[in-house]
Amino acid sequence: MIFEQVATGGCQSYLVGCEASRSAALIDPELTQIDRYLGLAARDGLRIRYLIDTHTHADHFSATRELGERLGTPVVAHRLSPAPYVALKLEDGELLQVGGLKVQALHTPGHTRDSMCLICEDRVFTGDTLLIGGTGRTDLPTGSPEALHESLFGKLLKLDPALTVFPAHDYKGRQSSTLGAEIVGNPRLQKRGLAEFVEMMTHLNLDAPTHLTEALRTNMNGGKTVTQLLAEAAAVVPFVSMTELARRLAGGGDPGFIVLDVRERDAFTAGHIPGARHLPRGQLELRVVQELPDPTARILTACEFGRISTLAAATLRTMGFVRAAALDGGMKAWREAGLPLES
Predict the structure, then answer these.
(1) Which pTM was predicted?
(2) 2-223 has which CATH code?
């Protein structure tokens, strides 16, 4: 077996490949690591045949949809996954053939109702069902402490205790454990009775994941993250530095741009780049032709932090304003640099 483990903060992903056929499966990939996964597969001479999510992630953004579109590779999840981009939905006990490797799905609801573990030779990928020294939480959408108790004590922990455990998360830098070690030393597994286990799980008082709403939206429905939208916009938009704009303004003549401030009116009135025109981002598509009738004009968008202006410049370019650019930075940085303002 060819095996690669990739840590992204506390998130763990796994590339599992067959040495003979060079076929591989990628388990729980994270969106920011796409180039790394592709680099590892290329280095190891692997072709990724399956992209697997062990469950609907609530704390990070899955890369399965993006990679599936790039590679033409099916996304795999449990049958109860709500994600519309899942091409292959597994039932409990079903196998994937990855070259000479067999990957077996074990339905283990509790953290989420679509949670599954994956057994492959001498190891088990436990998703968020079983963690090293803990378990997945059960207080997020579709979670159930009763279901998790059954998944653990009625199914997962009955497997060979020598199996190596590779979870989807670990925040202490640990790479793996074994089922036997977790049975003996995992504090949450010492509450074996249903009532005491449920009592423990319902009183963990954990903070909600930072990106909960956005992660669930993108992972459940296949939508794009804000980071993706910004990256896509930045890829098609040129930028102008604050230093360059300030230099042009200092000359006192035409700076060569129509500076377009896309903030709301109160922010614009409080202080803006000298000579800037105002058109809020929310009205851009409806008013831009009226406000800026010349599609050949060189437009420089500006906002408070440099993100909305990037999206605005990309929108202008798709509408035919092919010389639109964005200010590299925002009005906050402009003010902090002591650059000139009008109000």
Answers:
(1) 0.72
(2) 3.60.15.10
